[in-house]
Design goal:
heterotrimer, A alpha/beta (about 400), B mainly alpha (about 325), C mainly alpha (about 300), B: about 325 residues, mainly alpha, 13 helices, C: about 300 residues, about 70% helix
Chain lengths: ~400, ~325, ~300
Amino acid sequence: MTETIDTNEPLLRVSDLTVEFPTDDGVVHAVRDLSFDLRPGEVLGVVGESGSGKSVSSMAILGLLPRTARISGSIAYRGQELNGLSYNEMRKFRGNSISMIFQDPMTSLNPVFTVGAQLAEAYLEHHKVSRKVAWAKAVESLEQVGIPQPDRRAKQFPHEFSGGMRQRVVIAMAIINDPDVIIADEPTTALDVTVQAQILETLLRIRDETSAAIIMITHDLGVVAGMVDKVQVMYAGTVVEAGVVDEVFDTPRMPYTVGLLGSNPDPSLIGQRLTPISGAPPSLVNLPSGCAFSPRCPLVAPVCHESEPELTETSGTVVHLTRCHRWNDLAGYDDPKKLFARKEIGAEEPLAALLIDNPEVVVEEHLADTADQTNDDRTKGDQEKEAAS
Amino acid sequence: MFQYLIRRLLISIPILLIGSFLVFILVASAGDPLAALRTKPGVTAAQIHSLSVQLGLDQPIFIRYWNWLTGFLTGNWGTSVALGEAQAPVYDTITNALWVTLRLVIGAELLALVLGVAVGVFSAVRQYSIFDYIMTSVAFLMFSMPIACVAVVVKNYGIQFNDLLVSLHLHRWLQTAGPPATGFGNNLGQVIVNYSGTFLLPTISLMTISFAAYSRFQRASMLETLNADYVRTARAKGLSQARVIFRHAMRNALIPVSTLFALNIGAIIGGAIITERVFGWNGMGTVLVKSVGNYDPPTLMGWFAVTATVVVAFNLISDLLYGLLDPRIRLG
Amino acid sequence: MANATQTTADGGSAADAVRHEFDAKARSQTSIILGRFVRHRLAMVSLGVLVLLALVAIIVPFFLPYNFADTSSGGYLTPSARHLLGTDQLGRDGLAQLLRGTQFSLAIAFSVAISSTVVGVLVGAVAGYLRGFVDNSLMRLVDLFLIVPQIAVVALLVHALTPSWYVVAGVLAIFSWMQIARITRGEALSLAAREFVEASRAAGAGTWHIVFKHLIPNMIGTITVNATLSVSAAVLTEAALSFIGLGVQLPDTSLGLIVQDNYTQVLLRPWLFWGPFLAIVLISVTISFIGDGLRDAFDPRQTKVRA
């Protein structure tokens, strides 16, 4: 599906995408005014907690949301509007120019058909060829994702594959028709860490070979840092910060991003406190007025309750958008993580207070030393007991 | 797959043996074949004793069972000892009755399965529609109806329909009473008319409850598969709705239903007993009722042995279906 | 820096206040389940109808002009003011017979349901928990009981004993526990794999303690639903049994027996047939809806999937 592309024209342009679900409890605003561009070969990371709208937005692109969903806004693929197309009209895009990799490889494949049959089916749906040709293509795609003995494996059933292998099969199914856009929805969450790295490497290799664009949805910041070009942080259904990944992670301009970055346990930060964000994400039915993050934000000010901030450019040199009224103030803090430091109720924390003032003091505890100490105490105690008896 | 079936078969054999032994004990203790004679005037105790030795009633239960078993397996099923049926070979009685009942049972089960699956799939795909709502109510109602009354009502309508036909100067078509004919005619048209006329009403009566069970089960199973991840993947590949529903979802949804097929057979046989009574057929049901009422141990044993074998056979068929449908079972 | 901490403290307490505003009052599980059941209109209506039916069956006979055994009026009378459902062949009042039959059928059905549930749950829970040899043997036992058609073996046993209603109930119960055992076993299998059971075992709890204190309380939903549905099944099975003449017999009676007495009259004297027919259907349907309501109450799912 690769033709000569004008690299200035985005492959996928999403503008003001809004997805709502009417329920008995009220209208759920799953996605609110989401906008982004995607260019060929670009890897976009979409980061956020559960319920931030990441998966719903990608399902909306492919038209796979239930009939009750109300979708407004524009989803333009190579200039063609996808929102509003019927199920059958969308079929020629699905698995063909835009494909999707889902989260759980254990349940994403149909257990009663062979892997080869399912792959060939994906190919036959969009190409008028014989079954033999489709089967050959299936074997070829298995090879492309790094599955050994692909011709033998293609005749096997999904339950005969391990988790990591199954995810590779799912990836194979997503790339068999040479798509322009691959949406990967938490592709490694259900896998071991070692397998994770292999899967991500496979995806990047495919990007290099085919210049497909990848939307990488994840809640794992480590995955994002190592793999994506641009990152988009989502909260309560909308983008709260977006930009080139190094820029956003080095100099976050939105308190939520700060909190998110600081919530990750990191061995290089021994002795420093984690920055848990107090509270919980808001209900998508009953959103707070103004900025959605205001109930939990340490920088909250009256203006934050009045109006929801717009996405504003923060840097002149690279793309770095943020949705925060007080981003300028945030930029003034040397160590914005301290904003989230809190006194625990009822606990005496002199050490923590010391660290806040003097973060360079790193406290290391050598387990060997403390063990010796306890042993010494114990032998002393035994000696005393012996002496007494 | 072959191994899997052999394993299932091997488990069935000891169950059949133990089961038949327990039933034998039950049958043997359920009555006294000489009861009528004991109260008859002029019969001496010695005569009764010699008769009981002749019938082998004085021997321990294991020996009696063994004798019966060896006889049964070699084709000697004994003769009936019931009053009025004396000396009728059990083998003939049962095989004739079995032929009558099996046609009814298999026909009803297949019809219930096909219709039930179709309705279940459609109800699931069109969840909460008028069709779904109606079929749910119908199923609920069918589950609650005693098969005896259903059969009576069906027979009643059959009679009225026949009267209608007669009033239009046509022949009576539906047979509402009496055992089914053995021959059905010479040409195909005649066969179809006669066969359907004979089997239609009893089959409809018998399949109602089965149909309700299959449709509800298939509906629930289908709803679960329609929400499965692999169905979402199929849609994301760009497949048509029809292909997603029939090839991906339904194929998986059928797997649990195949287990229902075996579980149902006991209930169907029970239902057949009732239906035969209402329509006056001379099938296994009639044989059972007569041999319990008249206390006829040889016939009873033959009856239970054959029925148990049929149940086991259907269980194996269900296992076969399950293995065919689910590769995780036959390869796992 | 001091400012930062102050803002945080304020922000923290503000967040705490907001959290309390959106909290909900905790309710006990029983009241939650009961609440859901009460909101299930169909189940509540069915419960009302069933209770009404039972009360009518027990109380109304005292107000009828004729006793059920009274044959003085003469056979096959059409419905009239004195005999609301006419009389049967022997001259017994149709309505009195029907109500008495209902009493017996209900008694049989409930006793069968309770006893078969007790047996089935115990067998299933022990099998699912202990697994291995015990599980295998118990499941083979279930297979054994399932190998013969229920109606046949019950008929034989009742014939060997006496056809009184409690004998019929007892024998039916002996051959009705298998399905509940299988279902309970499945649930127990998955429950037994959970950590809290493992923890209990590590603390030294014995099998029966775990079964009664941990497994059964967690399966109470499934057990209640299946017990309710088995009442319905028992009514229908007993009716079938009595219909072929091998179930309840005189002096006791049941709805099935009444159907058997009168089914030949379906065209000429339909009131004699439709009375017991509708009674059976009514009992069965109301129980089914109650069971459905219970199922929803114990485990409501968003997709409202109902079997």
